[in-house]
User: Fold these one by one.
Assistant:
Number 1:
Amino acid sequence: MPMNTFLHLLIPLLRGALVTAEITAGAIALCAVAASLAALARLSGIAPVAWLARIYIEIFRGTSAMIQLFWVFYVLPFFHVSLSPMFSAILVMGLNGGAYGAEIIRGAVVAVPRGQLDAAVAINLPLFSRIGRVIIPQALPRIVPPMANLFIDILKNSALAGLVTVSDLTFQAQVLRESTLANGEVYGLAMLIYFALAMVISLLMRLLERRIRFPVGSRA
Amino acid sequence: MPLDSTSEPAVELRNVSKRFGQLTVLDRLSLTVACGERLFIIGPSGSGKSTVLRIIMTLERPDEGEVWINGRNLYPSQPPGLRRRTDQRHLRTIRRDVGMVFQQFNLFDHMRVINNVMEGPMRSLGLPRPEAERRARELLERVGLADKSRAWPAQLSGGQKQRVAIARALAMQPKIMLFDEITSALDPEIAAEVLKLVRELAGQLSMTMLFVTHQMHFARTMADRIIFFDGGHIIEQGPPEAVLDQPKEKRTQDFLASLTEVS
Amino acid sequence: MTWHWAFAWHVLPTLLQGPVVTVEATVAGMFLALLIGLLWAGMVLSGRRMLVWPARMIVEFIRNTPLLIQLFFLYYVFPEFHLQMPALLTGIIALGVNYSAYTAEVYRTGFQSIPRGQRDVAVALSLPPHRAFLDVILPQAIIPMIPAMGNNLVAMFKDTPLLSTITVGEMMQKALVIGDTTFRYLEPMTMVGVLFLVVSLISALGISRCERFTRRRS
């Protein structure tokens, strides 16, 4: 393929990739918050709060992101809630990811041995220290790797945003296809860009993994 | 060890009951520990010995009865049925005087040894970092692990971990120390070293100490009083010579006999 | 905006035409995914560098790119090679290829988790290789895989709405058409959501029952 055609395809795609990156970043942030809150709610032991979290998790895990997105985009306006397509995408991807993330976090926290909490009480640590200085640091190594996969799933789901008129990478690919009819090249290139973005996320998460690691022997 | 029986008791359990599901682990137990006393609790597994220590350490809350530590009631207003409300702040001020060493060591795996020992003084006692570090180093020196201060718990042997755990507990300068089968997870030679350390520390410090243990020779030399526990009740208690050499109750005799069979 | 039950009931039959297509796509797609996944797993487990590397790279690529783009790629590229495929078939192929990356992983971990001892036993009993595989290894490998494959099946089921973007008339498509023609999106979209939710919950229960069963057997 001649170079200028290649660039002709690449540049609009990269513009779309920027939007995709924005959506993904926003959704990841929302996902982290939602997942933490929902996990906290389920672990709190306060029945109504835990119940609400359970409902949130089941609904968002039981339906697909596309349905959730379309619901927000097509149905909410009739309830006088009009969100911009971009915001709808970030909201849905974030809440969807949050539902899966909540279970990851909850599982990791529950896996921290009871004895660690006992020791924290034995040296009279206040509640926030028990959570922040003992439980969370020991739960993180079991949280970060699955979250890395979850964040990449969010990136992949962001492609749906193009279906509700957001000018993301997928949308730009559609536009280019219609104008250039170079179907294979356009979508192939788009896939490569998504792959590159996924690798960036992977790399960042692996760096994070290294920072929170600590030596573990066999538990006596 | 001179006992101070004139001042108020260090620990007092009044009619304490504790159930786990259908199982009644403690049944209207009453127990008084004098200030500075070295008390040993022995008995078969599942008899509720550890639960007594855990209740004193506020790791478990009794279903009935009262727990008094240094003259203060752990759970003052206990209307029946209203379980949730424990005053955390009140609990923490009392808990400050109690420390515990566990059978499974329970060192914080994500912190180096020195930080394990510093954590309590810094976060609970509010000591500034340099002072906490100084105290930690002194204690590690005392338990013979000064050279391991930068090590991670995973890199230590069982005996070393337990010694760090002891240093960590002592860093809080508690008035009451609880030892829950601290050598049960250790090989015999290592266990002996740890017990030797505890004996030295007991000689230097005058705090109240409660032990749950199977180590009878250790109990014999260290104890002011030994309690034989079974089925959530005190079966027999008294000075070591009385309980170990001339047990009055049949259950005590059977238990002591079974120990010598095993060894 | 209020919910009109009469309308909801009215559109239910139309909506229920969708699930037939949804189920077709899911079943066929899963079948394909199981086959192709076995191919990748075989290549990786063979240990031969010539096979391991390409398989790993293909699986990585599939897993890190969106299903939607893969779907569009196949849909618009097939005609370029003079392959006129019905949309449903293209969708099934896309689902099958995409999920083969995940089934391959299940196969791989499943086979590798069989303790060495089992293979040694087969040797000790002097079983011929194919017998060893069929009677000893395979049954033990398959049972723990079932819950994981079940999860993949449910995930694929939830991805079928994507096929509506290439004009496949599954549930989502039907709901959108109803919405576009009557301007009432609330009932059809919610009902589709509820239908998905119900199926997901039922299958989640089924899978956890499966998991308990497999754990008891091991």
Number 2:
Amino acid sequence: MITPAEIRRLLPHRFPMLLVDRVVEAVPGESLTALKAVTLNEPWYARLGPDAADRDTRYPESLLIESWGQSAGLLSLISGADDLDGAVMLFGSASGVTFHRRVQPGDLLEHRVRLSRRVGDTVLFTGDSRIAGEVAFTVDRMVMAFRPAAALASANT
Amino acid sequence: MTTPVLAELSVEADEPRRTATVTLTVGADEPVFAGHYPHFAIFPGVCLVDCVVRGADRTIPDPGLELCGVDSARFLTAVFPGDEVRIELSWRPLGDDWRCAAELSTARGPAAVVRLRYRVTR
């Protein structure tokens, strides 16, 4: 269990881009299960007009990937992948992300992340995300890289 | 369509070829910068994916198509406040599905390569 307060200590992300609420299960170096509650009060919905339809309140797929990626980031961090001095975590790539059902406000996502491989400062993840046991989306592979902060200035993410 | 990105997209579509050029300017006022990150604004990679999804939505070859996957998204260089992002987008059939492929760049060169998958759901 990683509390919301501990998530804030581990991840550099803040409102409105801190998209993990709680970690309910974690095995460093292996796996992690995190919760993300989607609400109609998220800032993205503020710009919807009076005629917004169900399609418009769909949670953006981009943010689903971000939320799952932050869960992967938490697993990296508790697995000691940030031992490189002053390293920052970068989202390198994702492949084989498949959406099985739409996500709407009120849904509670359960991100299940497995660390599949670690090569130097690069960590590979796989897993899925469920809503009440039903698979919402699957992730074949996500790659996170830990690089010195200085490398980012040269824009090589 | 709900999006975390404030920037308006400019879309120039070549319908017969099923290609389009999408441009946007990433303003310093993008809401995501407040939290990504508080002391170092960097445009999230997923927001680039979001811009491709919105560009795809504006050029969709069949209104019944729905986004069903991100086959791949690779981030090459960081995007910062003030950057102009150019997206070269192209559609092609892929079996029963459609693929929307996009190459994104800024003045500093290639920024990302994204491949989306769409499926008729009705």
Number 3:
Amino acid sequence: MSAPPLLQVNDLKKHFPVRGGLFSRKAKWVYAVDGVSFEVERGETLSLVGESGCGKSTVGRAILRLFDITAGQVVLDGQRIDDLSPAKLRGMRRRVQAVFQDPFSSLNPRMRVRDILAEPIRNFGLAKSSAELAAKVAALMDTVRLPRDALSRRPHEFSGGQRQRICIARALAAEPELIICDEAVSALDVSVKAQIVNLLQDLQAEFGLALLFISHDLAIVEHMTHRVAVMYLGKIVEMASRQQIFTAPKHPYTKALLSAVPVPEPGAARTAMILKGDVPSPTDPPGGCRFHTRCPFVFDRCRTEEPKLRSAATGQWAACHLEELPEAPGSAH
Amino acid sequence: MALLEVRNLQTHFRTPEGINRAVDGVSFHVDEGETLAIVGESGCGKSVTAMSLMRLIPEPPGKIAGSVRFQDKDLLQLSEQEMRAIRGNDISMIFQEPMTSLNPVLTVGRQIGETLQIHQGFDKQAAEARAIEMLVMVGIPEPARRVREYPHQLSGGMRQRVMIAISLACSPKLLIADEPTTALDVTIQAQILKLMLDLKRRVGAAVILITHDLGVVAEIAERVMVMYAGRKVEEAPVVELFRSPRHPYTQGLLGAVPKLGSSLTGAARRLAEIPGQVPSLKERIEGCAFAGRCALATDLCREVAPGLEEKGPRHIAACHYAPKQATAA
């Protein structure tokens, strides 16, 4: 039997309670993630894409177990981790690390870079002596291409891009197998963003890291991912390889999303498929297919019956009732 | 004649650590009905430029020098009262974050009607009727109901539509849009960009679009000005700029942006990086501001700031070494 995938997420659900009005006791629920399943192989990049409120960050946080999930399973290397006791969870935490969007708020301003990087190494007992610890910390700086003499500085002395390098070094310090990058490059300027994207790709090649890359920036995703899962209102609507998603998307939402991205090429011929209206609220998602309120191809069945993910091509799944999934508009780009 | 002519605009801020030269001698013009995009990364001075045109910089700590000619008037010489007659009437502005730029305790109708009552002498009923028309124009469903709603009852995309309605209510000659779609999701961004293009054609306003997103620039601008560290480094018509950028910074910027679809055709997989960081604006930069990150830089660049030279038809760039003829694209 072949080895299990590094990460398996089975029918994950996370519902958050919200209180009603000022005096109302009746709690409503935000269906942030509502039945999501996927796998990440070793050394692979899977991107979760979608617009704000689609639940992509909640999936990342649920895997990190920053909160308990409502239903479903998270399986790391064949072992369920969503119900582990805190003591047993520690070992898992070493194997899955995270890099967040805002490097200003995710670094402790009072700690020197040296201590920020040493903390995970000490916590997980990865160095046998203080000399080894110092050597590891120095090597991490080389890995993320920061000068070693910056070790005694504090986060505020660095620019945004440099801070994000520190966050990446801190994630690497625990020697993880999977890094969850939650909008890790979204807050950075164009030229710095390119530096960090290249760094992440180099690190993946060097350490065989798996990445769960959560992003709304489709051009970056296309540039660095192996597979893509597209989310809409707490569900995966399409999942496929990079090539398939970007050249032959099947789900109408994926097509709309791709065609809405402005291309940095003046006069580029594109047939934008502009969706009407806004994303409905996740406290009260529409019945049937969640996309039916905005879908240009909607028909009766979509309003009543929820479509399941079904195979559209080898390695490509889409959740749509359309018999013949329509051709991509302007598939030229 | 140009609608707006900016000469040697300098906006400096006094800070405890010294003078911050946020905008350091920028000149440009905008023709009637034209769309000019100002692009650059955070801190390059693009937003401060826009705020300076509208005289929205608090003085002190800020200090604006130079001249801003708009319809035969120098906006920098006007009294505050004369300036108020121009803001929201002849020149209006849209900001990035519609939630913070709308007043949370006033209805949408009041906020659209306010400019009409102040500038065009509408009475309350007429202003509300016109507010409803404006909501129809920006594509808000059920305008008669929405006009009585408050900003928190609207989604992000709708709020930005309301902002656009406010800014166009008095049919301005010039609209300054500062990152108008940056806070929006892509499908909503596509709606708003299309709306802005349609309305610009109908109203005939000139637009200054401030953005860091080169995709948005390619989509709606006619002419582009690139800023770096408070200075203008290049300016050209949009097609020309994307086809043959002359300044090394512009070239680096364009190379650093992944293009949707480009990595599928077997093109290079690695993004071009611009090494290093943007220089601090608190020290006077003697030579070219980009010299520290530029592969072509020599001692000349570090000592003498290059002037803007003509490098092609309507194409200027500030670089000692940028070629005059287009390099093979």
